[in-house]
UniProtKB/TrEMBL annotation, chain B:
<feature type="transmembrane region" description="Helical">
    <location>
        <begin position="22"/>
        <end position="46"/>
    </location>
</feature>
<keyword id="KW-0813">Transport</keyword>
<comment type="function">
    <text>Part of the ABC transporter complex GltIJKL involved in glutamate and aspartate uptake. Probably responsible for the translocation of the substrate across the membrane.</text>
</comment>
<dbReference type="GO" id="GO:0022857">
    <property type="term" value="F:transmembrane transporter activity"/>
</dbReference>
<dbReference type="InterPro" id="IPR043429">
    <property type="entry name" value="ArtM/GltK/GlnP/TcyL/YhdX-like"/>
</dbReference>
<dbReference type="Pfam" id="PF00528">
    <property type="entry name" value="BPD_transp_1"/>
</dbReference>
<feature type="transmembrane region" description="Helical">
    <location>
        <begin position="95"/>
        <end position="115"/>
    </location>
</feature>
<keyword id="KW-0472">Membrane</keyword>
<feature type="transmembrane region" description="Helical">
    <location>
        <begin position="160"/>
        <end position="180"/>
    </location>
</feature>
<keyword id="KW-0029">Amino-acid transport</keyword>
<feature type="transmembrane region" description="Helical">
    <location>
        <begin position="67"/>
        <end position="89"/>
    </location>
</feature>
<dbReference type="InterPro" id="IPR010065">
    <property type="entry name" value="AA_ABC_transptr_permease_3TM"/>
</dbReference>
<keyword id="KW-1133">Transmembrane helix</keyword>
<comment type="similarity">
    <text>Belongs to the binding-protein-dependent transport system permease family. HisMQ subfamily.</text>
</comment>
<dbReference type="GO" id="GO:0006865">
    <property type="term" value="P:amino acid transport"/>
</dbReference>
<feature type="transmembrane region" description="Helical">
    <location>
        <begin position="200"/>
        <end position="219"/>
    </location>
</feature>
<dbReference type="InterPro" id="IPR035906">
    <property type="entry name" value="MetI-like_sf"/>
</dbReference>
């Protein structure tokens, strides 16, 4: 541990209750059409334990330790190149890491016996550049993995996709192709596509930073709604408005290290590290 | 200048030229193209797999095939394989490999080297984020390849694949060295029988040119229609 900024990780943290609505009590027609299946473990949803990662000689992550409890929304921020994307990609094993341990809902992801495709199917991920499949219609984008991975029938998968599309306000676009939608619309489809798999946790990697300013709001609205419905979320973003509104905790990274890991009020009140203070004043000033 | 040419030889033999000769040429081209694209795609996937050994094997195969003259491969396959087969299974006589299957296998193996380079470029042209997104949704490597990467790579590369198929169509004329009755083989048989070499070879050239020219035009049209909206 390089700084005193890191709070101790309690082995069984209490679920955070700072969101407006408890899970499953949202209004009719919520983004979460059914309660996600959760294994009967008592540990955190995501536990990142002392993770280090190297690209050749270059160390991208240095002893990162943190956890995300069920229902918690954790925002990850930090300067460009600080390792935010790398850390979040390690969580669903899109990137391998050399040292430490990550556990998702009780499953050790670096364990050779872990069925990674199965694990990933339960962890939703939203990318900076949407990554919809351009050769497939919106409907097919939404149903492909439902059918191939979860084994749902065509009708069931399409109905589920359509219901989620309606929730993100894009039902009328089901027959179109991704290239025919605006960036904001594509990102909402991407969120719906991830939700169609009934994920137990959602990862977001700068979901709004590739968008024109006027489209940021529509995507954030969907994410806020999702957070309020009780989805467990780990969100890399510089949208501090979003963090203030729905985050429980904020993690600040710099040079591959978790420098700050604090409750939202604490983080915005008085970030203890100088680096976090400099970063905050820079991004909040515009 | 054509005053002492006799083009009636074409009228008298066109059924033979097209129904025997051209039919063989087109069948061989189509089957070898399909086989070559399938095998070439597998070789491209081996090459890009990042696994030990497989990429080197794929690369060696492609380089080997591309550094041999096609005529030699056709000869080698047709004349040597029966003996190699005999030696392998310990038969008393060279095993029979028909001219058609021999040339089909030759062209498939040979063209696969070229198609694999096209498919490799096609796969590499798909942004990394696409396979990341497919993996993140829980798709396995083969599911991601089959449903996300290859359909896009194939569509991006379709014009190039078809252009290579036009080259293959021309190359199939080399099977005439095995005295197979492909289009050129049929033309040359008629030419020798009737002593009308110039007329027949001129006609064959015109037909090859017309087929390739029209096919190229169609490919260019198709190119505009299959482009994926991004
Ligand atoms: N495949 C790679 N090979 C080598 N170095 C890499 C690779 N991917 C990322 N890096 C390096 O690792 C560091 C962390 O990258 P990462 O993408 O995680 O940063 P980030 O915090 O997400 O930055 P940004 O805000 O720009 O997205 C950077 O210095 C980057 O150059
Ligand atoms: Mg990043």
């Amino acid at each position: 541990m390089t700084s005193s900024a890191m709070p101790p990780v309690s082995p069984v943290p209490e679920p955070q209750a700072a969101v407006d609505a408890a899970p499953g009590t949202g209004p009719v027609g919520t983004l979460l059409t059914e309660c996600p299946p959760v294994a009967a473990t008592t540990g955190p949803m995501i536990a990142i334990d002392n993770v280090s990662k190297w690209y050749g000689d270059f160390q991208v992550l240095t002893n990162c330790t943190t956890s995300v409890t069920k229902g918690e929304v954790v925002v990850v921020c930090g300067p460009s190149g600080s390792g935010k994307s790398t850390l979040i990609k390690c969580v669903n094993a899109l990137e391998p890491f050399q040292k430490g341990q990550i556990t998702v809902d009780g499953t050790k992801i670096a364990d050779k016996k872990t069925n990674l495709p199965k694990l990933r199917s339960r962890v939703g991920m939203v990318f900076q550049h949407f990554e919809l499949f351009p050769h497939l219609s919106i409907t097919d984008n939404l149903s492909l993995a439902q059918r191939k991975v979860l084994g749902r029938g065509k009708a069931e998968a399409e109905a589920k996709g359509l219901a989620l599309l309606e929730r993100v306000g894009l039902k009328a676009h089901a027959h179109k192709f991704p290239g025919q939608l605006s960036g904001g619309q594509q990102q909402r489809v991407a969120i719906a596509r991830a939700l169609a798999m009934n994920p137990i946790v959602m990862l977001f990697d700068e979901p709004t930073s590739a968008l024109d300013p006027e489209m940021v709001g529509e995507v954030l609205d969907v994410m806020v709604e999702l957070a309020r419905e009780g989805m467990t979320m780990m969100v890399v973003t510089h949208e501090m408005g979003f963090a203030r509104k729905v985050a429980n905790r904020v993690i600040f990274m710099d040079k591959g290290e978790i420098v700050e890991d604090a409750q939202k009020e604490e983080f915005f009140g008085s970030p203890r590290s100088e680096r976090a203070q400099t970063f905050l004043s820079r991004i909040l000033s515009h | 200048m054509f005053s002492n040419f006799d083009f009636s030889v074409i009228l008298n033999s066109w059924r033979y030229l097209f129904f025997d000769g051209m039919a063989f040429t087109l069948t061989l081209t189509a089957l070898a193209a399909v086989g070559g694209v399938v095998l070439g795609t597998l070789i491209a996937m081996m090459r890009l797999s990042g696994l030990p050994v497989l990429p080197q094997v794929a690369k060696a195969y492609v380089n080997f095939m591309r550094s041999l003259p096609l005529v030699l491969v056709i000869f080698w396959f047709y004349f040597l394989v029966p003996y190699i087969g005999q030696w392998i299974i310990g038969a008393e006589r060279p095993i029979q490999v028909g001219a058609f299957s021999s040339s089909l296998i030759t062209f498939t193996l040979f063209e696969a080297a070229y198609f694999s380079e096209i498919m490799r470029a096609g796969i590499q042209s798909i942004p990394k984020g696409q396979s990341a997104a497919a993996s993140a949704l829980g798709l396995t490597y083969w599911q991601s390849m089959g449903n996300v990467i290859l359909p896009q790579a194939f569509r991006n590369m379709l014009p190039v694949l078809l252009t290579q198929t036009i080259v293959l169509f021309q190359d199939t004329s080399l099977v005439y060295v095995l005295s197979i009755t492909d289009f050129l083989g049929a033309a040359s048989k008629v030419a020798q029988r009737d002593g009308r070499l110039v007329e027949m070879y001129l006609f064959a050239a015109v037909v090859y040119f017309a087929v390739c020219f029209i096919a190229s035009l169609l490919v260019r049209r198709l190119q505009r229609r299959v482009a994926i909206i991004r």
